[in-house]
Amino acid sequence: MSGPPRPTEETPPRAIGLIVLGMVFITVNDSLIKALGGDYPLHQMVFIRSAIGICFSLVILQFEGGFGALRTATPGLHLLRGLLVVISNMLYFAALAVMPLADAVATFFVAPLIITVFSVVLLGERVGLHRVGAIVVGFLGVLVMTRPGTGGDAVARGTILLPILAATAYAGMQVMTRKLGVYSKASALAVYIQAVFLCVSVGFFLVAGDGRYAEGVESDSLVFLLRAWVWPAPEDWPLFIALGVVSGAVGYLLSASYKMGNAATVSSFEYTALPMAILSGWLVFGEVPDLWVLAGTTLIAGAGIHVFMRERRRRSPVAPRRPLRRV
Q: In the prediction, which pLDDT does 283 show?
């Protein structure tokens, strides 16, 4: 009997198109979260968007094999993948509550570089000096954005750690997507994530939904995580519905792109979200990035693009040396 399928080394144009479209929806998602974040706790927004998003994902699932596609021999790995994306989202949106949109997005975009690192450890990819240098330059870009030695509008070091930690969890999640996508449909991967989001947000509600842990807390990020649930205002429901639809689309698009494409190559196209975030921050929230942000963004994006160019030239394998085994 032949072995299980394995990820291919080539990245089809469809995977690139899906990841770019996913970045459009992610920018809309971030803008909606930031717009609603002043009135609602994060876990309430996560619950509403996931409840709507999972319905969206289940509809797509019907076109990719029906409910039978949800059967899996590796439920523990899917649970771990879901928890990683939950952790990533919680940390990132906590940062988004107190950071300009462009700053948070640019700092988060060390994720493609971290994916490159993880691809060595988890996917057996070989990385040369050029990509090691790109990783160093990318983290240098993060340091530039912290404005070391300055005060005033400088991004607090503790705050900037939030999107970096979020990027680390996100990188782990996408590398797992590449492995689990061998057996699972993209819509099934999206359903698993939405289900984990629902469970975690319900847990937050049961423990902290009355807002008692937010009393006396001075950190805006913690208040965003711990404030009490409130019934949404009528004028906010269209935003919540849009958030749910966008969430479902993001879950599917990212799962599909990483499932069919080279992890390091696909992740490099996530940098298309950087100009989108800068434009959205300016048009929607009136946030104009300063030279420090633009300089750091240039270093981070330049490092990621360099990784992509090397990937295209060398076609380095990202698949495991041995076929994946069912467990």
A: 83
Write the burial class of residue 56 (CB in 10 Å: 0-12 exposed, 13-18 middle, 19+ buried).
buried
User: Are 105 and 166 contacting, i.e. CB atoms less than 8 angstroms apart?
Assistant: no
Contact 95, 264 (CB under 8 A): no
Measure the CA–CA gap between 243 and 248, rounded to whole angstroms.
Answer: 9
Q: What is residue 259's predicted lDDT score, i.e. its pLDDT?
A: 77
Question: Residue 214: enclosing H or E segment and its boundaries?
Answer: none
For residues 295 and 290, give the distance between their C-alpha atoms in angstroms, rounded to a whole number.
Answer: 9
Residue 82's contacts (CB-CB under 8 Å, 6 or more residues apart) are 192, 193, 195, 196, 197
Contact 274, 193 (CB under 8 A): no
> The tokens of 186 are what?
């993209």
Taking the CA atoms of residue 20, residue 195, residue 110 and residue 116 in that order, the dihedral angle to the nearest 10 degrees is -80
d(CA 157, CA 65): 47
Please, are residues 304 and 159 in contact by the beta-carbon 8 Å criterion? Answer: no
Closest CA to 191 of 247, 271, 267, 147: 247
- Tens-digit pLDDT profile for residues 284-321: 888 777 787 788 778 877 776 776 666 566 554 444 44
d(C-alpha 69, C-alpha 208), whole Å:
35
Q: What is the pTM of this model?
A: 0.71
Q: Spell out the residues 6+ positions from residue 167 whose beta carbon is closer than 8 angstroms to its own.
A: 88, 92, 107, 108, 109, 110, 111, 114
